[in-house]
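Please decode residue identities from the backbone states below.
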């Protein structure tokens, strides 16, 4: 790395802040630009409302990567608490442990339905649907139609917003290879021992971990402390500023960022145009492609436009008791309820609520920007969430104290049948603009992954800058935050 190298980081989420912290610790001049005027942490921020704190979906801190775990410990130390996981499924008015327990499944489903489920499984083993091309047929073949209908269909359709018949089978093969609820159900029905989660980091299936860490004030605490660390080391984390374009004048001439927003003046920046030698971008890939000047090839722009996202609303409902259910979150499989999951934030950390007699329930609605849910007023969403809590029997009408709504665009990058081709085109085009620009993070690389993955991509981008050459390819980080060397 040349002495005096200036680095810009776009986005103060886990990926951007991790990269900036590592760079600043090594003495590099780094500026982080964050569009949000209040919060750092991106999707991993913690929102504060009248003394209650809540996440954009509950955020567990667990990684198979020692480097990531060590980073979390370095930043927060004793402020990280360890929680035993409790989360159950709600289906047809009953709670099911997750992973499922055989006796409870039989008790809840009844002997007749349990036998029918086994029968429908055996039926598909004997008479599978030939060449299953969609998720419904693929899962039905694997587990039988009855288990598919109970423990897969409704929740999957809530999350992705399309019928399971419209989701490609190879997506299922990829996502369900390590774990599925139905697999757990079958294991439970067949095995005399309930499936026990394991904490052996090398083997554990992430969705089933038995315990996890959590900052005592929510995930935002981690990212606020990281931002504070960057500032203490002399770096800048500037809020309320949106990068609107990146101009690459030519080889070895760095990048000029165009930046807008009220945070500019507060940060003492004279101009909205700033020059950098290197840029790390954690903003959505679709945006990055459209923001590069001179513009990229039409093929890349079309591919970027074609990337799809699923959006998300958290409706936080503050209620009078903290004991409504003991889980950190529950999955709502009942198709009559629009919420997909419900978090109970007092069970994540007692410090998420102002006192022990109250809690904040976070109802999660998966949606598309501009659809009916997205366009509902905050009051209507809070009324919907409160009604659903009552109809599930979790809350009495008079228990509700307050409510708050957070809309999160681009919460989930969608893996549709064409996304891999789009990414390939985009990466080819990005390679033509050459050195000095690295895409990192969840939406930055269009990968549906956790914080640890996002952080690892930021770590590798920082290491590349420090070493002065492209040693690592952040695109080769897998969902377990492991760096996979490219092989022929
Ligand atoms: C419902 C839900 C639950 C989750 N649960 C977990 C969990 O339990 N554990 C876990 O580890 N992970 C979880 N995740 C994933 C986690 O939230 C992400 O992996 C992580 O936040 C991604 O970090 P990032 O830095 O890549 O991106 P982001 O968090 O998206 O941050 C990107 C930042 O860039 C900013 N930005 C974008 N464009 C611009 C621009 N042009 N100029 C300036 N700033 C810009 C954004 O405002 C944002 O702050 C969950 C995600 C969701 C949606």
């Amino acid at each position: 790395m040349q002495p005096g190298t200036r680095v810009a980081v776009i986005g103060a989420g886990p990926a951007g802040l991790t990269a900036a912290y590592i760079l600043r610790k090594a003495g590099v001049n780094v500026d982080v630009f964050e569009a949000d005027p209040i919060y750092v942490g991106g999707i991993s921020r913690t929102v504060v409302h009248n003394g209650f704190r809540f996440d954009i979906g509950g955020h567990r801190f667990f990684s198979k990567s020692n480097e990531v775990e060590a980073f979390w410990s370095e930043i927060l130390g004793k402020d990280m608490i360890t929680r035993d996981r409790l989360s159950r499924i709600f289906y047809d008015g009953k709670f099911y442990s997750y992973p499922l327990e055989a006796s409870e499944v039989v008790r809840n489903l009844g002997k007749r339905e349990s036998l029918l489920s086994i029968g429908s499984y055996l039926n598909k083993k004997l008479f599978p649907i030939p060449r299953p091309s969609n998720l419904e047929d693929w899962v039905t073949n694997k587990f039988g139609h009855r288990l598919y209908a109970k423990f897969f269909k409704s929740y999957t359709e809530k999350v992705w917003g399309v019928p399971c018949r419209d989701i490609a089978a190879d997506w299922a093969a990829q996502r369900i290879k390590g774990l599925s609820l139905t697999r757990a159900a079958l294991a439970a029905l067949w095995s005399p021992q309930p499936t026990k989660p394991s904490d052996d980091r090398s083997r554990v299936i992430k969705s089933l971990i038995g315990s996890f860490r959590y900052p005592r004030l929510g995930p935002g605490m981690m990212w606020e402390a990281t931002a504070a660390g960057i500032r203490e080391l002399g770096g800048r984390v500037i809020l309320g500023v949106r990068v609107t374009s990146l101009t690459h004048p030519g080889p070895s001439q760095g990048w000029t960022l165009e930046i807008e927003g009220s945070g500019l003046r507060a940060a003492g920046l004279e101009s909205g145009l700033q020059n950098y030698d290197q840029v790390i971008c954690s903003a959505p890939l679709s945006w990055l492609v459209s923001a590069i000047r001179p513009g990229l090839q039409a093929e890349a722009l079309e591919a970027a436009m074609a990337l799809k996202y699923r959006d998300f609303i958290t409706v936080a409902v503050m209620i009078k008791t903290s004991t409504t259910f003991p889980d950190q979150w529950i999955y709502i499989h009942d198709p009559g309820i629009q919420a997909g999951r419900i978090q109970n934030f007092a069970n994540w950390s007692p410090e998420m609520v102002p006192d022990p007699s109250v809690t904040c329930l976070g109802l999660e609605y998966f949606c598309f920007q501009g659809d009916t849910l997205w366009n509902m007023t905050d009051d209507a969403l809070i009324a919907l969430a409160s009604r659903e809590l009552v109809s599930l029997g979790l809350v009495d009408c008079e228990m509700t104290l307050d409510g708050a709504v957070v809309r999160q665009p681009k919460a989930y990058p969608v893996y549709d049948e064409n996304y891999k081709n789009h990414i390939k085109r985009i990466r080819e085009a990005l390679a033509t603009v050459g050195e000095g620009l690295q895409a990192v993070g969840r939406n930055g690389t269009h990968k549906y992954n956790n914080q640890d993955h996002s952080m690892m991509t930021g770590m590798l981008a920082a290491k590349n800058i420090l070493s002065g050459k492209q040693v690592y390819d952040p695109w080769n980080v897998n969902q377990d935050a492991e760096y996979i060397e490219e092989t022929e």
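Observation: The chain has a mean pLDDT of 89.
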